[in-house]
C-alpha cells in the first residue's frame, strides 16, 4: 500500500500533540530533523506494528471494559493512526469496548470520566455565538460528515445530557472508512431532565431542564442551517434524539439536505436485512409475515416503516394492506383506536377496537391489551423488541409464539445488553432451537439441541449506517432517499451467512463489518447514480473503484515540512 504524503506546517510540541499528525516513536529520522523532534523523542524508531503491539499489551493490563474504554479514548486523543490501527487489528474484540455495550457505561459516567473535549459543543445559553463557535471549530476543515446528538434517548438508558456523537463518529471511520479529519461530532446541549445529572456538581453539561417547543426547534434549525450554508455537500447524522423530536426533525430536513436518522433509518435498514435473511431460511415472503413490534419509539417506528415500505416495493402490495401486517405494542399495550394520546406518526398502524372486543372484555379494568394476549391472538411469525424493557419477552410469551409458529423469528434489539427483551440463549432453549434470533448488542452463541453453536446475529445499526453514509457521501448525494437505503439493506441481506447455510448466523460477523459496509456503500452510490440523487457524473460501473480510492486507512503518511502546509 503506498504511503500518502502530506505537507505539514506544525513543528515540535504542536505536531506531537496533534492526534491527526502525531506518530510518536514512528517519526523517521528525516522527519525528526525537519519537524524539530530529535530531542523530544527517545532514540528508537518503531514501526506501526510495534506500536500496536505495545498499545495492545498496555490495553490488556486494564482489567475492566470501562478501563479499556478510557484507555482507548486517551489513545484517540493522542494518535489517530495508532488508535484506528489497533482497533482494526482487533476489531471483534474491541468494538464492544468502544461502542455498544461499554459505551453506554462510558456515557452514563461521562462527567466523571471526562478528560478532554472533542468535536463541537453547541449549548443553548451560548446560542447567540453559535455561528462564531461553529466557524471557529470547523475553520480550515473540509467536513463531509456531522454526527449530532442532543442525548435525550441514549441507547436504552435515556436522557444523558451530553454524549454519543463521538462514539458513532469513530464507527464511521473504523467500519466505513471515512477520513476522521472530515468527520465532526456535534453535541447539542439543550439541558437535561435527568435529576441525578442536574444534582451532580461534576456534571459537565448545562445543568438546566430541557428546552422544548419553539426555542428547541429554532436552536436545532440554526445549527442545521449553518451546516447547509457552510458544508452543503455534507451528510448530517442524527443520533439518539428523543422520540418526540427524532421523526419530526427527519421529516423537516430530509428533502433539503442529506440528513439521516440512525435510530429510525439505520435500525430500519439493518432489521430489514436481518428479516430478509430469516425469511430466506423459512422460505416465505415479507408480506406473509405477521409482525409484532414491542416498543413503538424511534427504532420501533423506523423498523415498522422500513419493513412496510419493503413489502410495498418488493412484494407489490398496497400500503394499506402492508400496514395490516403489523401490531405495535407499547407501554400501555396494543396500540389501537381507543388508546388515548397515540402519536401522530403511529396513526397508520393503529388496530381496530372491534378486533379486540372479546379479549378486552376478559381483561383487567384499565383495558390495556398486553403482549401475551396479542401473541396468542395474532400468532406472529416475527417479534421485534425495541422497548428498553429488560426481560419483556418472558418464557410464557416465547412459548406461546413458538406453539403456533414453526420457526419463530425473534429479534430482541434493545441495548445495551442488560436491557435485552430476552437473553437469546433462553429464547433458543425455550423454542428448542427453532427460533431465528438476532440481538442489538453482542451475545455469545447459543447451543442447539444437537450440541452445535448457533451464532447470534448482531442486528445493530452499526453494521449498515457507516456504509449508507459513505455511499451517500462519495456520490455527493443531495438527499438520502428511501430507495438508497433499501439498496444498502438488500446488499447487506445478500451477504447473510444463513443464505448458504440455514443454521448459520442471520448476519455477517462484526469482524467483517468494514468489507460488508464497503459493499453497502457501493450499492447505495450505484442506486444514487441510477435514480439521479447523486452529484457526481460517474457511471455505475465506476463506483467500486472510486469508492476504494476514497477509503481512509490507518497508515502513517510521509511528512514534509512546509510553512503553508496543513495544520
Ligand atoms: N439494535 C439497534 O441497532 C438499535 C437501534 C436503535 C435503538 N435500539 C434500542 O431500542 C431501544 C429503544 O430505542 P429508541 O431510540 O426507539 O427509544 P424510544 O424512547 O424512542 O422508544 C422506546 C419505546 O418503548 C416504549 N416502552 C418503554 N417501556 C416499555 C414497556 N415496558 N413495554 C413496551 N414498550 C415500552 C416507550 O414508550 C417508547 O415508545 C433502546 O434500547 C435502543 O438501544 C437498538
Ligand atoms: O448505538 C447502538 O448500539 C445502536 C442504536 O443506535 C441504539 O440507540 O441502541
Ligand atoms: Mn442510537
From TrEMBL:
SMART domains: malic, Malic_M. One of its GO terms (cellular component) is cytosol. InterPro entries: Aminoacid_DH-like_N_sf, Malic_enzyme_CS, Malic_N_dom, Malic_N_dom_sf, Malic_NAD-bd, Malic_OxRdtase, NAD(P)-bd_dom_sf. (S)-malate binds at residues 415, 460. Divalent metal cations. Prefers magnesium or manganese. The active site is at residues 99, 168. Belongs to the malic enzymes family. PANTHER family: MALIC ENZYME-RELATED, NAD-DEPENDENT MALIC ENZYME, MITOCHONDRIAL. This is Malic enzyme. It comes from Lentinula aciculospora.
